[in-house]
Amino acid sequence: MDPDRVVAELVGMGFELSDITDAVEVVGPSIDSAIDYLLDDSRRNTASASTSTACFTSCADMLGKRGSSSSSCYAGKIRQSSINEFIKSESRPKRSKTINKLNMSQSEVFQRDTGGQNVHPPLEDADLHIATEKAISSSYCKDEDIGPDWQTKVKTLLQKHFGFPLLKDFQKDALEAWLSHQDCLVLAATGSGKSLCFQIPALLTGKVVIVISPLISLMHDQCLKLAKHGVSACFLGSGQTDKSVEQKAMAGMYSIIYVCPETILRLIKPLQSLAESRGIALFAVDEVHCVSKWGHDFRPDYRRLSVLRESFSMDTMKFLKFDIPIMALTATATTRVREDILQSLHMSKATKIVLTSFFRPNLRFLVKHSKTSSLASYKKDFHELISIYSRKGKSSSKNKLMSTNLEENSESSDNASNGRMDECNGINEVNVDDVEGYAVSDSDNEVSSPGRYGLDSSKDRQLSVEYLEDECDVVQDVDDLDVSCGEFSGKLPLKGCSGFLLHKTPDLANDPKERAKLRHKPLEDGPTIIYAPTRKETLSISKFLSKFGIKAAAYNAKEHVFRMQNHSCESGVKLPKSHLRQVHKEFHENTLQVIVATIAFGMGIDKLNVRRIIHYGWPQSLEAYYQEAGRAGRDGKVAECVLYANLSRIPTLLPSQRSEEQTKQAYKMLSDCFRYGMNTSCCRAKTIVEYFGEHFLLEKCLVCDICIKGPPERQNLKAEAMIFLQVVSTHCRNFADISYGGYEGRLGERPNIKALVSRIREQEGPVRKHVYQGI
Ligand SMILES: Nc1ncnc2c1ncn2[C@@H]1O[C@H](COP(=O)(O)OP(=O)(O)OP(=O)(O)O)[C@@H](O)[C@H]1O
Ligand SMILES: [Mg+2]
User: Fold this and answer.
1) What Gene3D superfamilies does UniProt report for this protein, alphabetically (predicted)?
2) Dist. CA 538–CA 402, nearest whole Å
3) What ipTM describes this predicted complex?
4) Which of 260, 390, 403, 551 is 20 to 30 A distant from 176 in Cα terms?
């Protein structure tokens, strides 16, 4: 094997250059023998008696490098040292070409070595030299190169790898915190570019960045993207079947390692070794709201991540000169969640909080009333969507077909409005009550028991919790996507083909004139994501849309994907989970027009041109809603977020395993979301950002349904209120006790709403007269 290649690979694995050259001299150009040699402590100990400190200093001076192992050290160890040490890089001796050549970034090595696909494809010598030369001219910075002009270096890296001219201010702030070894909590809107905050440190230092992330699909997407941008990355999780990826990751062969929280807890020891060898620049905890049980996606294993602080601190690892910084990132955290994050992760008291506005100026928020339960609702609600996509891709005959089908369908509306869909229309039976067995109380702190709101009055509407749990993707599983390959080698984009065009947007955020223009601006082409509460509904809606020629696919966490294209019905087909990957792929390649998904789809998914996010049914919280809605318009162009919900019905909590405390919290969040939907007077964007504790500087967004329509005409409903209160107080004898819990506890029965309503109706005449007299 070519010695250069052996050396390059071993450098990539994190071994020290001087040790490698020793090894290659002794055992020859064989990776295996060199590794054996490097790992054979005793042999190497006898070869040198120098102390690690002495060697560290001298090697550093000699190589212009910050760290080195000594012969008495654990072979290949690179000492973790302060980034500030490298700020003095100016005065370091110039490295010889040979040293540069051998000290190439691991990412660069892999970029060439793997050709973007395989780990060790045969390389011709000439190729290797090209790779090596390329590495020499690479703009990757080594640790020792970070200096006061780091921003210039970052700029170069940004342009080279991502095609962006500048860091955003909040990215700069987060990086500054990391450079001074501070922990950092980054709270920035969906799609604002949080990932870059933890990706840059890997490029800047040559150390590894460990990213804790909740979903395989998210890790997969990010790795794929990084590979396109010339950064080697891999992901590890229980779904990772290729064990060699983990071994290679722990040997320092990837610049960025994505790992799910469950797995990282198992990897603490190997990661400590990695910190000693190649070095760990940063632990990034992405989607960190999952840490908190006050958040919307609580994952118990996220809470156990405090182990990171304990295991990677100076106290535990004596060679560290500072605790390895933790950077926690999310787009949806209320103030309570933020506090919980800081505490749970044991982040330092000096944690820097980088906060940007949660406001997404290019998103138009709308709420529409819909039963969301029947074919009739589908027809009414998706009519526009169907015509948009039909206009785009279909011939006029298809349109004709569509209108014919709509007419046909309307004939069956009786059936549909009963919550059943006619099989001949190709629609599965859907009943909104399938998922309504729980209810939220009006009061924030009140917890209602299952079935409180009369659904159980009709037995056929009642469903078992088992069914519901099977039907809803409530608790997310990390293995949401089956992937056979978890490693991605960096391959720099060709010039002009980065796929990341910068869209210069006008100052949408503040300029009222610009904002007003957005009101009725037609949406550009791009896909739509429809979020439905149950798996069954994802299937029935996608099937419905497919009937009209829309390229739609269902996506849920169950092991099947139901797809229909061009009217070819594949009803009942069960596909393996790996097909979810296919849906992801087609979505990213713009082959699909609509994805109908449960919450299993989307967290952190970064697709620029999603034009519409439709929630078809109540979300479980405003946090979840805003995060899912945030998948829209990431290119900065106008996009729409529509919530279709049954405004005449209290939303229901989807079943999940929760403690009593969590249930209370879940109801509280659901009820906040209900208020958002019911609100008719306050700008939607303002409601949302203020929910996250931000003071909304604009009085209104000018583009949501409420800003456009204005609040409804004010009516004096005092008379009606009086009637209601009088009837209720008569009915319940002691009105002061009419909290639902108190009422039920006292009388052992539920309030009979029907009886109350008919009493109100009966008494309306005389009471009304009485009331009006009193006014
Ligand atoms: N400095 C920058 N200049 C221009 N565009 C950027 C910059 N940084 C990131 N972006 C773009 O922002 C988009 C969103 O990035 P990213 O996925 O990191 O968002 P996010 O904040 O993590 O969102 P989410 O909360 O949804 O996960 C990416 O497509 C990226 O191209
Ligand atoms: Mg993200």
Assistant:
1) P-loop containing nucleotide triphosphate hydrolases, Winged helix-like DNA-binding domain superfamily/Winged helix DNA-binding domain
2) 21
3) 0.99
4) 260
Residue 161 sits at φ, ψ, to 5 deg, of -90, -35
CA 194–ligand 1 middle distance (angstroms) = 6
Helix (H, G, I), strand (E, B) or coil at 353: strand
pLDDT tens, 216-261?
Answer: 878 888 888 898 888 999 989 866 667 788 999 999 999 999 999 9
Distance 604 CA to ligand 1 centre (A): 10
Q: Is 257 exposed, middle or buried (0-12, 13-18, 19+ CB in 10 A)?
A: buried
From the CA atom positions of the chain, what is the Rg in Å? 30
Query: How far is 482 from 473, CA to CA, in rounded Å?
Result: 16
CA of 608 to the centre of ligand 1 (A): 9
Listed as ranges, residues in the chain with pLDDT below 70 are 1-18, 39-145, 238-241, 392-509, 557-579, 602-604, 732-751, 764-775
Sign of CA dihedral 284, 286, 288, 291: negative
DSSP-assigned states of every residue in 632-682:
S-TTSS-EEEEEEE-TTS---PPP----HHHHHHHHHHHHHHHHHHH--SS
pLDDT single digits (tens) 475-517: 445 445 444 334 444 444 333 333 222 333 346 667 778 888 8
Counting every residue written for the chain, the total comes to 775
Ligand number with the minimum distance to the CA of 192: 1
Nearest alpha carbon to residue 750 among 438, 451, 452: 452
- What confidence tens digit (pLDDT) does each residue in 17-55 have? 667 777 777 788 777 777 777 766 444 443 433 322 222
Residue 284 β-bridge partners: 211, 327
Structure tokens at 752: 């009979």
